[in-house]
Amino acid sequence: MNTKRKRKVWGIGSGLFIVLAIAFISWYYPLSLFSIHQSFTYHPGSGTHNGKTYEEEIAEFKAAYEKDLKKDLEGVNYNPTVNRTQFILPIFEQEWLIGTDSKQLIKINWIECFSMYNRQEIPC
């Protein structure tokens, strides 16, 4: 093979490799810097690992937490885990986790968002 042909083959091969690498990154890491469309759609499942729904698991956890909280308030021993659960529980009760509708998570371009905020076009 001559030099021109080798250079052309290497150019096409490396270009194809770059395109495939970006496609792979976009597919497996949808919120990465190299992703073309930076979003991810969450589809909630109907059941968990033990056959219960997510709502049943949260309700069971909340009932156990309220029982432990009542016990903690009546007793003399302070349990920091029970106290901190009140801050963690709302995270697991968010609508996109409990609901059955699909939600699309979009990566925010913070630089653009703040520049729009400074121009008073949208609140970030």
What is the compact description of this entry?
The chain is mainly alpha-helical. The chain is built from five helices and two strands. The N and C termini lie far apart (58 Å).
The helix fraction, in percent, is 55-70%
**End-to-end Cα distance:** 58 Å
What strand line-up does the widest sheet have?
Answer: 1-2
Given as residue ranges, the uncertain stretches (5+ residues, pLDDT < 50) are none
What is the H-and-E element order?
Answer: HEHHHEH
Protein model, in words:
The protein is mainly alpha-helical and 124 residues long. Helices cover 59% and strands 6% of the residues. Strands 1-2 form a two-stranded antiparallel ribbon.
Task: Describe the protein's topology.
Layout: H1 3-28, E1 39-42, H2 54-74, H3 80-92, H4 95-98, E2 103-106, H5 110-118
Antiparallel strand pairs: 1-2
Helix pairs in contact: 2-3
For the structure shown, list the relevant keywords:
124 residues; mainly alpha; 5 helices; elongated
